[in-house]
Amino acid sequence: MDICEAARAAGFDPVIALVGAEAELPYATVLLCFVTYEAEKEPSRQGAWIHPYYPASQLAYRAAAALEERFRQDGIDLRRHNEIRLKPLFARLGQLRQGKNTLSYLPGVGSRFHVQVLAGNAPAAEYTHLSPSPKPLMCGDCRRCEQACPTGAITGRGFVRERCLRNWQLGGAAVPEGLRAAMGNRLIGCDECQRCCPHNPPPTGLAGETVPLSWLLSSPKEAAQQLSPLIGSNLALPNRLAAQACLLAGCAERESLGEALTALAAHPSAQVREHARWALKQRAAGSDHE
Ligand code: SF4
Ligand code: SF4
Predict the structure, then answer these.
(1) The pLDDT value given to residue 284
(2) 98 lies in the same domain as 165
(3) How much distance in Å is there from the Cα of 145 to the middle of ligand 1?
(4) Phi, psi at residue 250, to the nearest 5°?
(5) What is the pLDDT of residue 254?
(6) What is the pTM of this model?
């Protein structure tokens, strides 16, 4: 079976084979294996929200591992290479378009996809060729994502990574104070600059996994174990979950989480302590204004 067909049979669609040399990579073939996820819904507003990208990417990760094993058993030289930078390749691929929000778009799907990469010396039956230089952005005069971003990370002069919420979530460092109140109920992921984009299908309901904030605050080790298959073991670390949950508790003033936050304000992790103390201050300031 052709390697693209094998990847499709493993659940990926579309599957695009690139010539490694065109991508300036030392492989005969670079196989881009896409998974798409439900795009037409708004984030859930209750509990700590997990953007649907993360569960989709974990499923794709497992499917790619199984595909790699199958190729290995069949003597096909293709291995996973998650270190390959995809955005420069997407910018030269005719099928994809790019936006000011730094995301790439597939026709009919929009930006709601994840890609696993396998590369090696096995040939594909058919290749898609890259253009020699990047394509222009698709945005024209549109500024919707600039206006929708809650932290001003998308500007007329480009994307400011340090202002993007996703850059800080479950990252292990204290989140800059000016960004904390914008976390809302986002445990991981932010959808604002995708949902507003006219190149994505409009939302028709609520979507995404949510987990109780009280559980994250009181049992972060258990939460890490249970969330690992959904968001990956690199992100599902107890202190990081507790630290992010503290910020969400600071944004959810009305839930009775004060006791858990007080305990976490003396946590051994400096990040957890800092976030818990900030949340307690937010809640105290909120009750002063009631
Ligand atoms: S993911 Fe959220 S915070 Fe980051 S640029 Fe998009 S809207 Fe702004
Ligand atoms: S919302 Fe508008 S400016 Fe932003 S990526 Fe989409 S088309 Fe481009």
Answers:
(1) 84
(2) no
(3) 8
(4) -70, -25
(5) 66
(6) 0.91
